[in-house]
Design goal:
Number of domains: 2
Structural class: mainly alpha
CATH topology of the largest domain: 434 Repressor (Amino-terminal Domain)
Largest sheet: none
Helix content: 55-70%
Radius of gyration: 17 Å
Number of strands: 0
Length: 107
Amino acid sequence: MTFGAIIRDLRIKKGLTQRELAGKIDINFTYLSKIENDKLKDVHFPSEDTIIKLARELDANIDELLLLAQKVPDAMKKRMIERPDAFRKFASLDDATIDKLLKNLDK
């Protein structure tokens, strides 16, 4: 699913109209419509602040929405800057290896 489709899905599940949600996060409902319908170019894509407001209003995971919008959450940016070596290695791993590592971390 696209970022816009997920926003629309979450909004509908909360029982909100586009006008209601837009009013709650202080954006124009036509802009929200463009977000939901994936009609925005990169320069007009929602800011990190708008995505955070959407996540909070829709009870969504902020980091997941930011990543879906191809924006790196601040906490991740900080760790990437502190440990680029670790992120470089992690990025080179295949999914099976990552799944194993995550399973071991959860123990």
